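The records we work with from here on pair a chain with its fold. Taken together, the tokens spell out the fold as the letters spell out the chain. To see the layout at work, look at the sequence and tokens printed below.
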Amino acid sequence: MSIPRAAASTTSFNHALVLLADGFEEIEAVTIIDVLRRAEVKVTAAALGERTVRGVHDIVLEADARLDDLDTAAFDALILPGGTPGAKRLRDDPRVLELVKAFARDEKTVAAICAAPIVLEAAGVLGGRRATSYPGFDLPSARVQTSDLVVQDGQIVTSRGPGTALDFALTLAERARGTAVARALREDLLVA
């Protein structure tokens, strides 16, 4: 597939960091990584601990790197797949909370799907923003949207769950590379 070049945008990004904790939701993680790489975004999947990470449905992935081995300043987007207990492990890791705060402070893209918006809540970056998550996960500081599959508010992007992973990933691809790229990907992937 030939990917058109994107026009410059204040929300664009070139290098995304996807964090993986044991218990991550496999559909979400793989879909995000796959779609963004198809859009020619550089993606690094980083494990909180060792590079071998087990998903919530016992699918094992090998991350590209360990979080502790990365210069996180080199990334311009931070993306958190959901799944439980994976999202809770992300939320309970002080390194992750500091990363979320730093990316939000620097107005870089911060994205979370399914249960992972609880990480954004714990980091204190949702205050008054529109957001969504998997039903039952509390986001008391946000203006929760339950009818939208993907919610964007400034540099914060959230989505509902495994069934919305493709919409979420395509939204991120559009932010990174522009509408023409997202449209080409939708056509190539046969997304209605």
